[in-house]
Amino acid sequence: MNDAQAQRTRLMTIITLVVFVLWVAIDQISKFWVLDTYEDGGLLNLDWVIVHLVWNPGAAFNLPMPTPVIQGAVALLAAFLIARALPKTNSVILAVCYGAILGGALGNLIDRFIHDGKVVDFIDLNFWPLQSFPVFNVADIGISVGTFIVIIGVALHDYLNRPSVEDKPVREIVSEETDRGIGE
Questions:
Q1: What's the whole-number average pLDDT of the chain?
Q2: Staple partner for 54: which of 46, 80, 92, 121, CB 3.0–4.6 Å?
Q3: Exposed/middle/buried for 36, CB within 10 Å: 0-12, 13-18, 19+?
Q4: 121 catalytic, yes or no?
Q5: How far apart are CA 42 and CA 177, in angstroms?
């Protein structure tokens, strides 16, 4: 790895770590506020979103998950995969997404340890077509949106960097077409 690559890797790591710390902080502050404000069952109706406390014993969006140990293992797997991908990352967007995913995973893990295996959820969408969407939190946003953008980014990268026809020798193209019954 040359100096420019090492410097770029350090920059991407710093961006990921800063977003990670900020995401955990925003998640935990928002959950603390909800617990302090709505623990007695009140709600804040902002027309398109309702803020109210929901205890989630499941995974993201209240999907069933057998034990907090498995949820912790999933978070550790995500951290491992991101740690492997980060040195190869040249995209600030991906570095931000990695930080949001890790921050969301840690934010929900903190809840599980503090609140007997449950997570504080409080964002309830109230507009069509999402009225029956599960209640979620800031950590879930980081995990879901970050993962979605990473998947789209990787797919676009692979698509845009696929070998073009111009990169192949003519003999390979003719051979492929003949194998498929084209050009005979």
A1: 86
A2: 121
A3: exposed
A4: yes
A5: 67
Of 134, 107, 100, nearest to 16 by C-alpha is 100
Give the pLDDT confidence score for residue 131 in this predicted structure: 87
Name residue 50's beta-bridge partners. Answer: 45, 124
From 121, 124, 158, 179, active-site residue: 121
Catalytic residue check, 167:
no
Considering only CA atoms, which of 133, 121, 115, 130 is closest in space to residue 59?
A: 121
From 27, 111, 124, 140, active-site residue: 140
Contact 41, 53 (CB under 8 A): yes
* DSSP-based three-state secondary structure for 43: strand
Beta-carbon contacts of 183 under 8 Å, excluding residues fewer than 6 positions away, are 174, 177
Residue range 53-99, pLDDT digits in tens: 999 988 766 677 667 677 778 888 988 999 898 888 889 999 999 99
For residue 109, is pLDDT > 80?
yes
pLDDT of residue 170: 54
C-alpha neighbours within 13 Å on the C-beta side of residue 102? 22
Residue entry with tokens 């309702």: 50
